[in-house]
């Protein structure tokens, strides 16, 4: 049976994941200094830029190469979320732009939004009931 | 009247001749060690078609056409086409049959289709219903990935046991008459669906080994032969790890396949980087059998070949529903001296 | 120094993801769902805010950060709009990300073509 490469996989995930976050930090700092964004604005700006980068590199066909050796290091950051949106959309282009690209954008990212938004709402209900204002 | 040998082996008295054969493959396969053997190859994943599904169909069509030409036949001389592929509703074979306009018997055996189609085609020849039949199959890396697994550009790592679907097609033309020295189908052993509880769709090799072993052992028992009878025992796509497991498991059952066993999935990508456990797909066994092993039989370098193609009978839905992976293996015995 | 902290925190979160990927049968999609939900829950019980304070982008760039934004936005909207905020807060806070994902996702898919693996 194949050998386990757990240690190498963990190290790669750590390094690549860490570096993508460093990039995110840089983008955030850029937003604050160049565009005088406040904390929330910088956060939104970073999200937009990182998603763009993830989408762009997926389009170039590079992100899957990264994923092959970085594992979770490329899946967990928000760039991985963008990759999971663009990859199926690209793939199903040939099935048309409405039911192909349009519908497939969220085959993998959809569950993230469903569970993320739903859990936030449920938490919100609990927070509200227990007097959070 | 019982022409069945043992439990489930068909012994063919007419011993259909393989009068034509062809193997078509894509870029990655061309770059592998068997690259020069393929009758036709192409350089990218689309082969000037708009979709990968059309490319797969083009390979299937070309394989059938080249095999027929090799047999000195027109397509209209083919009485029946036995074919299948990995795609939903076997659209590759079905749409190709539309173009070829040949009576079509569609089959689904997943990656065991090449052996299954030869088994079924041989029966038509044996029973005298056809003068010529064509048996073909095809697979494409992109069409298989998008149907069974993930979009190609998704950044997820592949596990070491996973295999790469071969972009390739294979076709043979069988006839009741032929010339001396041509490979002939002497026996075929139908498979039984075996399920050992494997759920990992990224480890097809493990799922298919029990089926391969069961069919090989049954074939040997039904025919009374030993592994040494054959020059090679060729499996379709057990892959590197699956092959190791097969040899080990059969040894535990008291049968030593030893040096006789080879696997198309291992051979087609041998020496290439990032191949994980090797090639898979119905086009793997299909193209390697036709382009490589049958060519060797034609040149008299091999005289007795047992071709055992294995298929994993899962669907994307069954895995999501938590089902295990059932598999099947069909075997055909091909000999030049009978 | 901030960069080092971002690297470390981000790296650790991805490391946890890698262990799950390698050692369990969890698929990438399930891991993403787990992380975003964990981000929501950890923020709600107050455990994630300190991680964000310390790690900056190291905590907000991983998908747990998306959960963090969802939760924080929800609480903020409840404070401002009462019960309605339960529903409006999360999506409003992550609107930039969702909108960017939809638009860029579509545009890139429009412009580029998928390639088979080597």
Structure write-up:
- The complex is a heterotrimer of chains A (133), B (338) and C (118).
- Chain A has 7 helices and no strands.
- Chain A is mostly helical.
- Chain A has one domain (6-106).
- The relative contact order of chain A is 0.09.
- Chain B contains 10 helices and 15 strands.
- Chain B has helices at residues 27-30, 52-70, 91-100, 113-126, 141-148, 204-223, 239-252, 264-268, 282-298, 316-320; strands spanning 4-5, 9-11, 17-25, 40-41, 80-85, 104-106, 132-139, 164-165, 168-175, 184-189, 232-235, 261-263, 279-280, 304-312, 327-335.
- Chain B has a 7-stranded mixed β-sheet, with helices on both faces.
- In chain B, 61% of the residues are buried.
- The mean pLDDT of chain B is 94.
- With 118 residues, chain C is mainly α.
- The longest helix of chain C is centred in the N-terminal third of the chain and has 22 residues, at 2-23.
- In chain C, helix 2 runs parallel beside helix 5 (63-81) and helix 5 (63-81) runs antiparallel to helix 6.
- The chains are: A mainly alpha (133), B alpha/beta (338), C mainly alpha (118).
- Chains in contact: A-B, A-C, B-C.
- At the B-C interface, loops of B face loops of C.
Structural class estimated from helices and strands of chain C: mainly alpha
The gross shape of chain C turns out to be globular
Question: What string gives the helices and strands of chain A in order?
Answer: HHHHHHH
Most extensive interface: A-C, 80 and 80 residues
**How many strands appear in the DSSP assignment of chain C?**
0
